[in-house]
Design brief:
The chain is of the alpha/beta class. It has nine helices and eleven strands. It folds into two domains: 40 residues, no CATH class; 267 residues, no CATH class. A hairpin with a 4-residue loop joins strand 9 and strand 10. The N terminus is likely disordered.
């Protein structure tokens, strides 16, 4: 009779989980077929959720210790004028000639706080000491603060890179309203944007509300970044692209900011001076409080950051969706 009862319980468990290979959301409290005891956990692996998305070296970093407002100023180059020697009748000009200074100020900080709680008594109650220890589980919980903040930081930077309110549209500024038609066109467009940014001119400068005025300037190759999504990156031969700039594949990849794949995202390419995007950190602080009477610990991570666009520096963007769609259509399609 006992054996039939146990078989009945086991059958109920199997019915609740029609495909055992898919696992169960609930602990299967299954009695052993021959003993009264419930079968226990054999291995326990508890990890916090990780985010592999990250953007590195895409923004100019400002570490703020004192004060709050960031001032960026560019002194315009002096202009040449015709020189006439005194012996030819020219009188010396002793009047002042003050330089033109372009200034921008930023203080758009936004404070964020992340919180989590560890309850060591409860952790000990569920830990089987078969794969994950109490200390490791508690550490994973606290680590969710940094992982959560890193994920927010990534999303904030990506949102700015993909926002066409920031920067100059290369389609209208360099290509007469046209766009790349294929992968070769993408490489050509990136090369032209690269040349326009490195050359001394006013290309790619947007000081006020898409008003293309600003100090004539060139950008050192070391300060140039190329932001590109993985969907576009997969269509480009970077060995060939690097040769266009007389750079090795490793050197050109060192300038590339890869935007990880996300569904329903556009295909924007940027070539820009790294100083056109700023990221200022005033506060990044971890703290905790032991709630002794309640037997738990609260943990906080507090940040205060500003993300901003500086139109004094060169920044081009280009939508290459048409070229991506054309290339993908030659490779991916209906099997029928």
């Amino acid at each position: 009779m006992k054996e039939n009862k146990l078989k009945y319980k086991l059958n109920l468990q199997n019915f609740a989980d029609p495909d055992p290979a898919m696992g169960s959301d609930n602990f299967p409290a299954t009695p052993n077929a021959y003993l009264e005891a419930v079968e226990t956990i054999a291995n326990q692996n508890i990890k916090s959720v990780k985010s592999t998305n990250q953007i590195e070296d895409a923004f100019f970093e400002y570490k703020i210790d004192d004060g709050k407002v960031i001032e960026e100023a560019l002194v315009e180059m002096a202009e040449a004028y015709t020189f006439v020697p005194v012996e030819e009748g020219h009188q010396p000009d002793f009047s002042p000639k003050d330089p033109k200074v372009w200034v921008k100020y930023f203080d758009n900080y936004e404070g964020k706080q992340l919180k989590t709680t560890t309850r060591l008594d409860e952790i000990r109650a569920i830990i089987a000491n078969k794969g994950t220890s109490t200390e490791e589980f508690a550490s994973e919980i606290v680590d969710t603060l940094t992982k959560g903040e890193n994920n927010f930081d990534y999303k904030a930077m990506r949102a700015m890179i993909e926002n066409t309110d920031y920067g100059v549209n290369a389609s209208t500024d360099l290509f007469n309203g046209n766009v790349p038609l294929n992968s070769k066109g993408i490489m050509y467009a990136i090369r032209q944007m690269f040349y326009a940014v490195t050359a001394t001119n006013t290309c790619g400068i947007m000081v006020n509300n898409n008003e293309k005025i600003g100090p004539e300037q060139g950008v050192e190759v070391a300060n140039i970044r190329i932001a590109i999504s993985e969907s576009v990156l997969s269509l480009i031969d970077f060995t060939e692209l690097g040769s266009l700039y007389h750079l090795s594949k490793e050197e050109i990849l060192g300038k590339v900011i890869v935007l990880p794949f996300e569904p329903n995202k556009g295909n924007l390419v940027r070539v820009y001076d790294v100083k056109s995007f700023g990221r200022a950190t005033r506060l990044y602080e971890y703290e905790n409080e032991i709630m002794k009477g309640n037997r738990y610990i609260n943990h906080w991570l507090t940040t205060d950051r500003a993300y901003f666009f500086n139109g004094l520096f060169k920044n081009y963007y280009l939508d290459v969706s048409h070229a991506v769609a054309t290339e993908v259509a030659t490779m991916i399609g209906s099997a029928s």
